[in-house]
Amino acid sequence: MRSPTHALLWEIWQRNRSVSAVIVALTIVGRLLEPSSLVVMLWMVSFLLLFGIFTHPISPRLFTLPVSSLRLVAVPLLTGIASIEVLNVMWFGRLVTGPTSTWFVAVLLGALMVFYQTALWMLERTGPLKFVFVGVMAVIVFAIGLVPSFPPTPPPWWRSEAAVAALVAGLTAMVFLVASRHVGRVRCGGGSTAPRLEPLFAFAAARLPRTRKAFASPAAAHFWFEWRCSGLVLPVLVAGVLLAVIAPQSWLARDAGGTSFQLLLGALATPIVLAIPVGMAFARPAFWSEDLSLPAFVAVRPMTNEDIVAAKIKVAAASVAISWLLVLSFLAVWLLGWANLDGVGRFAIQVWAFHGQSAAAVYGIAVLVVVGGMFLTWRFLVSRLCGGLSGSRVLFNVSVMSVVIAAIAWMVFDGTRLAGWILDDPARMTALAWILAIAVTAKYWLAAYSWRRVPARYVRQFLLVWGAWTACLLAVAILFWGVVRIYVALDVHRFQAVMILMALLALPAGRVGLAASCLERNRHR
Amino acid sequence: MTLRLNASSGTPLYLQLVERLKHSIATGAIRAGEQLPSVRKMAEDLVINPNTVVRAYRDLESDGIVELRHGSGVFVRESVSARADLMKKAEPVIRSAVDRLEALDLDEDDIRRLMENELALRRTARQTRKRRA
Amino acid sequence: MRERHGADEASAEPLVSVASLSRTFGSKKALDDVTLAVSRGCVFGLVGENGAGKSTLIKHLLGLWRAERGEVRVFGLDPVLEPTTVLGRIGYLSEQPDLPGWMRVDELLRYTRAFYPRWDTAYATQLLEQFGLDLDARVKTLSKGQRARLGLIAAEAHRPDLLILDEPSSGLDPIVRRDILEAIIRTITDEGRTVIFSSHLLDEVERVSDHVAMLHQGTLKLCAPLDDIKAQHRRIVLRFTVPHADPPNVPGAIRVEGAGREWTVICDGSRIHVPAMAQSLGASIVDDCAASLDEIFVAHAAVN
Fold first, then answer.
1. In chain C, which residue's Cα lies nearest the Cα of A300?
2. Domain range holding B71?
């Protein structure tokens, strides 16, 4: 090794030889094939793998080497920037490019790499949550990238590509210095920012009113425990996305009705989409730990497995309620404040006209959409419970990967085309209706079987939820098919049947009942 | 009562306790007619199993030093002072035995070893008899 | 269930009974055909070296491990099939009490209290004052000893019928260890309550146990009242006239070790007439006393 830099570079290379080979292979294959959705998928995977390489923290054993902190920070960051630019260049021209110029994309990618690594280093202590922060940050960078192409085009000077690129480059330089300072401080044992913040939090926390009353029942006590562990994660994330992404875009789109409508749908979709990754962590017996075994602290309490599962489900429900409260208050402020209601108005008029010119139908649909959204959010939080609580890493990973693969496949292979392909041919619709009918039957058989050992009071509570959910989703399905019919010429009755069946399939009845048995296998290994 | 018992020395805990109590009684720290601490209190203070305390008290009772009064507790017998006289009478017996052993050119450690060996043999024999009975 | 409970008290059934319990983890046999019974009102000490299977056995009693082969009954019930009934009467303190770091002391006690109807608040407060724990402190700021004390309060305050301590003293200073031993004695002097505790600090076990079970590599080497064990094992130091290179063959000895002329023998003193044995070997007795639990344990552990 000729110099410390050489040694550090060699270490990064040694650690990631196989992954680098895979990335190069994917890039070569991508260049050889014709542009298609498969190529897009390869592109995404290669970029994800590259980010995966640079997910490594600066290990503390490097701190005792005679190397400056600036160098320790600069080597991974500059290597990251270099590799991502190289990858970008290699994929250049293989993908359909939008209105944004390539050099702008290059600047954004470099900045993203720097922000990504710094965020991971600085948020070490938050554990798995740091990836969620990083995800939100990536969305923010993506949104910044969209700013120049926002209507009206061409953008004014302060919103042009050059200006945004300069701003981003400046931020990158600042973040670089922050990273170097942070690593320097961590090297000296923590530094002064930690003490400065901790007493503040402790002071604030001590001032909050805290009740010292006893819990009414073991179920209430465990609900409190699960709530303190994981209840506020979804609301915080939803608030973060609303404030950081939707609110600024809503301000910029205050003249565009169509974009406003899309942002409204986006705001409504935020809790649902965020519930998917949060649900994967929620499924684990301990939210914040990688370990899938039930912690002894909980396992030794005189509680049945059904009590534990019920507490988790109730915490999910409370979490969903608070998140939606945040969304609705934001929507209230936005819609009554600076929103452009053209697009919303057009849609509302169509619905009003279709349903016999009754305003009640419009408001009814709005309420049903919100309630349906709440149910869907809750469903995504709770649906991985069976895999996670079972304690089997294989089952959990399969459960998680199935969602990830489905999401990637939908994006890459353009899922909306699938819907069109099915709706074209009535025979395919019939086949789909049969498949769904069998699935619904199997699902409810499984639900009935898995609920055989659950105590009566939980069954009663869940039946209430079940009934309300089914009624709501059926109402949405029935109310919407009529509107959709205007746009698509198809066999009405079969389509109605398909929508009703899909609504019935959405409820996680079987999985919830099985969760208690899965937990039993985990608690008594 | 501040007594410290050593669990890992060769002597069983209950014997150590018996010895300490006998010493306290003989020196007058606990007077005749006084009540000894309850089994529970003794066990908690010394951090030993209550059964050990029970055994020690039973040993003292069989030696005639204390008496167990049902419902009231463990009391030192009034006749303990008679013990003190007995001890005084035994002193010359020991003195002459040790003199004779020293005349055989045995040192202090040897004498102690012989004494302990003899007492141990007698104890084992007593236990065997108790078990057979 | 209430009837079974009543029958359990009336018939003087053992509180905990383990029959032919075996458990394998991969290729390693953690427990091999272990059978023991713990009766009500005793202090049951479980000793063994690290990895002997003590924690595994205790986890079987709590239902955290399912019995692969054999049977486990606590209060006459299977802890896997009826966790609520069994665990409601057990207090458990483990080696590393995995108390959530974010909880405060009073929150932890409030949470634990909700599960046990027999929780004695006055007793818990008295213990808190005695141990000097700050109600508002978060668990992650407490030292290891304080955490152990807090875990002890949470386990003890509801006056459980069975107190299970799994190597509670490991890595703790003597003051905390004494607190734990005092808790054990306090529990046992309360009518009808039982303590099972595992430790590799044998002098502690010797102090407070009635019964001792010794596990070595998953097998039960000894299980008897402590008095019997102590009576059956004597440590005899023999001095030979002729130095031996190998341990002399002492009939009926469990373990012989030493060097040259002096050899220490651990044997069953109640069955062997020691002076006769010494004479037949041509040696003199240098020392003859009760073996400490440490020596007994080492002697049995070495025999395979």
1. C87
2. 13-78
Q: How many CB atoms lie within 10 A of CB C112?
A: 22
Mean pLDDT confidence for B59-63: 88
Alpha-carbon distance B82 to nearest alpha carbon in chain C (angstroms): 32
For residues C134-166, one letter each, b for 16 or more C-beta atoms within 10 angstroms of the residue's C-beta and e for the rest, the string is eeeebbeebeebbbbbbbbbbbbbbbbbbbbbb
Asked if the Cβ–Cβ distance from A212 to C100 is below 8 Å, we say: no
Q: Which of A87, A71, A142, A68 is nearest to A111 (CA)?
A: A142
ipTM confidence: 0.84
Question: In terms of domains, do A103 and A169 share one?
Answer: yes
Q: Which domain holds residue A60?
A: 4-201
B4 versus C149: which is more confidently predicted? Answer: C149
B61 and B19 in one domain? yes
Select the residue from A125, A215, A230, A300 to test the C interface by mutation, using most C Cβ atoms within 10 A.
A300
pLDDT digits (tens, 9 = 90+) for C82-107: 899 999 999 999 887 788 888 899 99
Is position A209 within any domain? no
Q: Which residue has the tokens 């990830």?
A: A404
pLDDT single digits (tens) A365-410: 788 888 888 988 998 888 888 888 888 888 888 888 888 888 777 7
Q: Which residues pair with C225 in a beta bridge?
A: C211
Which residue of B47, B49, B113 is in closest CB contact with C209?
Answer: B49
Question: In chain C, which ranges are continuous DSSP H helix?
Answer: 2-10, 54-62, 83-87, 105-113, 121-131, 144-156, 174-189, 202-208, 226-232, 274-281, 293-302
Residues of chain C in Cβ contact (below 8 Å) with chain A: 62-66, 80, 83-88, 90, 92, 94, 97-100, 102-103, 106, 110-111, 113-116, 136
